[in-house]
Design brief:
The complex is a heterodimer of chains A (231) and B (438). Chain A has 231 residues and is mostly helical. Chain A has helices spanning 15-47, 52-60, 69-78, 86-98, 101-104, 106-119, 122-127, 133-149, 153-173, 178-193, 201-210, 219-225. In chain A, 69% of the residues lie in helices and 0% in strands. Chain B folds into two domains: 2-300 and 375-435, no CATH class; 309-371, 2-Layer Sandwich (Dna Ligase, domain 1). Chain B has 438 residues and is an alpha+beta fold. Chain B has helices at residues 2-6, 8-17, 46-70, 75-78, 84-88, 137-149, 151-156, 165-176, 195-205, 262-267, 285-288, 291-299, 316-324, 350-362; strands at residues 21-26, 29-34, 37-44, 110-117, 123-129, 182-186, 208-210, 215-218, 221-225, 231-239, 272-274, 306-307, 310-311, 329-333, 342-344, 367-371, 377-382, 385-399, 403-405, 410-413, 429-435. Chain B starts with a helix and ends with a strand. The chains are: A mainly alpha (231), B alpha+beta (438). At the A-B interface, helix 1 and helix 6 of A face helix 8, strand 6, helix 9 and strand 7 of B.
């Protein structure tokens, strides 16, 4: 059909665009994994440790400014005025995604739109974490759409580079075992080896030396992981 | 069409899913809101369209010829058809553009012409928009959605497909592209009211969406700044930034939206700008009065599409008529746009009438007055009811090797039963515009 222009005649990645691609990946993965980690801690709060949310805050590296588990549930998930809330993370995903519509396409961006619309529904907010399974589903669809629709390797790998950096960071913070974290590290390396120009090679080299069974939880390793991006 | 109307909620859910919004500033704060969509389309018969299309092509050709003339020989002024002061006092006139002829001599690549249909069926031009007319993306995405939710509607009705707008834009970009450079849409950013359109058109036209920081001018050439100082030559910029903010070194020095030295690159013919700089002189509300005369002067033809009856207080006879008939006229400030600066005499109290009389007497060039066109009302859905509201039509004319009219348009309607102002910034909604194939 002549009417729809789908072939991209130009491609170009500026420093600012590279930064948006990277942070799109990071924030999208942060939303997905935060919900995953939250579910584990909410489960602990049932009959194991009613204050497990405090452990969550410590591991996430955020201040425990919450007065109770209920207060945490409301404000950490849905409070737009709380900069670290999940709904704000989604807004950051949207900020970046909106400015990349021509690269990720409307069909991918729409999973973020749907997520935000869903989180803003009063009935979802009153259901707490249980009402957010759909956000997890949307985020998985988002990643599927990234893989299926973005044919430009540089664009796709830049987003996934951000995803794996975030995934590494959170899995280390939440004390995952080495073999699990190493698997994510290998996926990051696999992405970098393809068409991805926004990883600092010297930092990566240093990280490879320190990414060992004994040292992977050291703060220095986390710092290296968070310094991998350059554009 | 009944099934489409029944599926209104589904259509609106799709619009929300696709993020079809426009931005608006209220009380200094930026808000994004959904652009209300009415499922009942405006239907234009094939017969009507043939005349509208011919009239629009004729009008835009004349406007392009006027722009070339006004920044070069000024024959239309020498011939006494347009007074000199209407050119030089226009806020859209840019002295910096004198002597510049853009790539392929096209000034207005994308023209948005606002029309209304009077109750006698005649189509009347209300306004020309030759700078950065917006709005085409809304009917384009609405059609994408309505075809999904109600395919039978389009099996039963032979309507021109309107999803080719992005292809038309890209062809226009290809045509004026210099040295086969990159093609970019330059946006002021996501807090612009039309940002959805910028990003959607970039996606659908397959071109780069650029922000000011992404571009740099070196040796009078424009480059896209890639990673690690890689430079890629830009051949054409579809800019969605107003003239005065486009180059802080040439125009508004405080602008952070523009690209320093862009004007130099453009003046040297090293980059094409869509639309050209300085087009505001031709879509000035005062110049509007002269467009039918331009058609006659440049093309030797009578204008097919007529203006609304317009008076220029600049002329003594017109001023006298305007002041005597203020209560029945609509008064427009030529410096305003977006539905602002429009005053209906019938709605003004004595004090307001005295004020406007004083302003017209002291600044006659600033105002035009028009007879109020009693344009037709269109049916819209209000809950489960069908009601009638005023609506206009913005038609989009694309100028490349040929001048073509997009077979659709943005139909905007007012949501207030007493208002004639249809602008989205003032709370209006939109409809799809169907051009029938036969």
């Amino acid at each position: 059909m002549e009417t729809l222009t789908k072939i991209k005649v130009n491609s170009g990645v500026s420093s600012a665009k590279a930064s948006r691609l990277y942070w799109l990946g990071r924030y999208a993965e942060r939303v997905y994994l935060t919900l995953h980690m939250l579910r584990k801690h909410f489960d602990m709060m049932i009959d194991e440790d009613k204050d497990a949310y405090i452990i969550f805050c410590t591991k996430m590296g955020i201040e425990n400014k919450y007065t109770s588990a209920d207060d945490f549930t409301k404000r950490y998930l849905f409070d737009c005025s709380n900069p670290e809330s999940v709904i704000n993370m989604l807004d950051r995903v949207k900020d970046n995604a909106m400015m990349l519509r021509e690269e990720i396409m409307t069909e991918t961006l729409c999973y973020i739109e749907l997520s935000i619309a869903h989180m803003n529904k009063p009935e979802v907010q009153s259901a707490g974490i249980e009402g957010l399974q759909r956000i997890t589903d949307y985020m998985l669809a988002f990643w599927g759409s990234i893989d299926e629709r973005i044919v430009d390797n540089q664009i796709r790998h830049s987003i996934k580079f951000g995803k794996f950096v975030e995934s590494l960071d959170l899995h280390i913070r939440f004390d995952y075992q080495f073999n699990r974290v190493e698997g994510i590290f290998n996926r990051l390396l696999h992405t970098i080896e393809k068409e991805c120009y926004i990883c600092d090679e010297m930092t990566l080299l240093t990280l490879k030396q320190h990414f060992t069974f004994d040292d992977y939880k050291n703060i220095g390793v986390l710092q290296l992981i968070n310094s991998l991006f350059r554009a | 069409m009944y099934s489409l109307v029944k599926q209104r909620d589904t259509v609106n859910k799709w619009m929300e899913r696709f993020g079809v919004r426009f931005g608006i500033y209220k009380g200094g704060n930026f808000h994004e809101q959904l652009f209300p969509f009415d499922p009942i389309p405006r239907v234009i018969s094939h017969r009507d369209w043939i005349e509208i299309e011919a009239g629009l092509i004729q009008r835009v050709k004349a406007l392009n010829m006027f722009l070339e003339d006004v920044y070069n020989e000024k024959n239309i002024v020498k011939a006494g058809i347009i007074p000199e002061e209407f050119i030089y006092s226009s806020s859209g006139y840019m002295a910096q553009c004198e002597g510049i002829t853009p790539s392929k001599k096209i000034f207005s690549h994308i023209s948005g012409i606002d029309l209304v249909q009077a109750k006698d069926g005649k189509w009347i031009v209300l306004e020309d928009n030759l700078r950065i007319p917006s709005g085409a993306s809304y009917p384009m995405i609405a059609r994408t959605v309505t075809r999904k939710v109600s395919p039978e509607t389009f099996k039963e009705n032979a309507v021109f497909d309107n999803r080719n707008y992005s292809t038309m834009i890209r062809r226009a970009m290809d045509y004026v592209n210099i040295d086969n450079g990159l093609q970019v849409i330059l946006t002021p950013g996501r807090y612009n009211s039309a940002y959805f359109e910028h990003s959607y058109l970039a996606e659908k036209a397959g071109v780069i969406l650029a922000f000011a920081d992404d571009l740099i001018v070196e040796n009078d050439m424009v480059y896209y700044k890639g990673l690690f100082d890689k430079r890629e030559r830009v051949g054409v910029i579809y800019r969605r930034i107003s003239d005065e903010y486009l180059d802080p070194l040439a125009f508004e020095s405080t602008s952070l939206l523009g690209v320093p030295n862009l004007m130099r690159a453009y003046a040297k013919g090293n980059v094409a700008l869509m639309n050209a700089l300085g087009n505001g002189v031709a879509d000035d509300k005062g110049i509007y009065y002269f467009v039918p005369k331009m058609v006659e002067y440049y093309l030797g033809e009578k204008a097919i599409l007529q203006n609304a009856p317009t008076y220029l207080p600049y002329y003594e006879d017109d001023k006298k008529y305007v002041l005597e008939n203020l209560k029945t006229l609509v008064i427009k400030d030529v410096a305003e746009a977006g539905g602002y600066g429009v005053m209906f005499g019938r709605e003004m109290n004595d004090e307001q009438l005295a004020n406007i009389t004083h302003l017209i007497e002291t600044e006659p060039r600033r105002w035009i007055a028009q007879e109020v066109i009693d344009f037709i009302d269109l049916e819209i859905m209000d809950g489960e009811d069908r009601i009638y509201r005023k609506a206009d039509l913005r038609a989009f004319v694309i100028s490349e090797a040929e001048t073509k009219v997009w077979h659709s348009g943005l139909t905007r309607y007012t949501r207030s039963p007493t208002s004639f102002i249809v602008n989205s910034s003032q709370g209006g909604g939109f409809k799809d515009t169907w051009i029938m194939k036969k």
